[in-house]
Amino acid sequence: MNKSFHYLILLFVLISCSNNSIKNNLKSKSVNYNKLNSFIQDSLPSILTLNQNFNQIFDPWQGLKTVESTSKILSSDSRTLTYFLESLKLELTKINDKQIPGKLNVPQVIGRFRVYKTEVLKINSNKIDLKNIQKFKENLKKIIISYNALISMMNKIAGESLESNENMETVEKK
User: Fold this and answer.
1) Whole-prediction pTM value?
2) How confident is the model at residue 128 (pLDDT cuts 50, 70, 90)?
3) Could you tell me which of 61, 66, 73, 171 has the fewest CB atoms within 10 Å of its CB?
4) Which range of residues forms the domain containing residue 4?
5) Residue 75: which of 144, 148, 152 has the closest Cα?
6) How many domains does the chain have?
7) Distance CA 136, CA 16 (A)
C-alpha cells in the first residue's frame, strides 16, 4: 500500500508538471498585441485624406464613407482590429465599382478601387496567430498603400475636373 501511495504521488507530480508546460506553451504562442499596436502606429504609412475643396465631386458617391473608414485602422486598438476589418469587408462587398458616380467614374479610379477592395477582402483577420502575424502585417500595409493610391487618384481626378470646368467657363465668357 505504501508503494502504491508513492507511485500515486509521483504520477500526480508528473501530471501537474506537464500541465504547467502546456500552459506556458500556450502563452508563448499567443499574439503580442502591444507589438502589433506598435507596428500599426509606427510602421504603417500615414493615411491620405480627400481634399475637402472637391466635396461636390465626392459627395454623390454613397460608398465613399465606407472607403474613408479605412483611416480608422490607425486609431483602432489592435485587439479589436479584426472586428473592424470584418465589418469593412462586409460593407465593401456592398459597393459596386460600376456605380461610381460622375467625374470619378474613370478607369484610373475604378482600377484603384478594385485593387483596394481586393486587398481588404483577402486579409485573413479571423485567425491571427504567430504563424500568420507577419502576413497579416504585410496585408495591413498593402491595404493602406492601395487606399492611399485610390485617394490620391480621386483628388487628382477631382482637381483636373474642376480645373477643366473653370477653363470652359472662362472660354464661354469670352
Assistant:
1) 0.79
2) confident
3) 171
4) 1-30
5) 144
6) 2
7) 36
